[in-house]
Amino acid sequence: MERFVLRGAQVLYGGSFGEMDVAVEGGRIAQVGQRLNGDVLRVEGYLLPGLIDEHIHGICGSDAMQGAQAVEAMSRSLVRHGVTSFLPTTMNAGVEETRAAVEGAKEVMRAGSPGAFVAGVHMEGPFLGEKYRGAQDSRANLPPSMENFARLAGGAADVVRLITVAPELPGAQDFIRAATRRGIVVSAGHTDATYEEMEAAVGWGLAQVTHLFNGMNPLHHRAPGVPGAALTLSGLATQVIADGVHLHPATVRLAVRSGANILLITDSMRATGLEDGVYDLGGQTVYVSGGVARLAAGNLAGSTLTLERAVKNAMRFAEIPLEEAAAMASSRVAASLGLNDRGEIAPGLRADLCLLGQDLEVAKTFVGGKLLFER
Ligand SMILES: [Zn+2]
Known about the structure:
The chain is of the alpha/beta class. The chain is about 25% helix and about 30% strand. α8 (about 305-320) crosses α9 (about 320-330).
């Protein structure tokens, strides 16, 4: 097995940066330490665990709803942004369309992804509420149940790793319990749940909140609702879109300072990396202007954010160091999803690595020890 040693970078190891060598062998991290043996590859900048995007609809013209080819194209595009694992994310759609998308992602997993690793699917819908639908087409909404899930996921139910559900819907309790037992991580989103309903749902196994403050009731001082639950209940991780549009920078700072377990996501749609214009998102027309995607009615419709930019933005918005922002887009996401073989730079884990230059732009991306992007 091919072995090489990355030398010269500040390595994020055990929660802080230090200059050390990282030896890669057989697609895994073999050792982290000083003066390791092997062919040396000189690098400079910051070596991070590869970034993990658990909520992404599309990028560079491709959308996860289009099936296997589009997911492959997303996989190839994402390594430019330091992303080494992602969950292609579905939109609210009919049963056949959803099944085709989930099965398409599974096909790529089986064949082997060409770039960033497809680590499963995030189904954002159709077990969603009507009131805070955002850019989701609520005509496709269905009540949560394992029967409906089986129809929607078809032969690919085993690759669904994350599902967004409105926990106040009838049937949610049984569904959340059953999904959690199967190892699926359940996230509350597009929801009008009360704080008390959220508390109960955590007891059923609810583990995440989908894009904090977006697609949910607002935080009121006498009715803290979903945001209040996300920021205070232990056991919940909460997704944040740090693009400066979906949330005011101070709101990101507030969320981080609450001590909640923040996970950075992009929620990006296919116009990401392309020019302003008219695009499609889950069958709805989206107008992208100045990088901001909206439906004709004005609702925000996904983002054009990339995950390395989310890391940089989080540093600035929340006044946190790179090591903390990077963890929000790597180790914390892996831990919440139960992806125990990645998310940190440590011996035995997959050699999924993202090298940032001194300017914090992505300089190199390794997936399973293979150099798949170089600036
Ligand atoms: Zn989304």
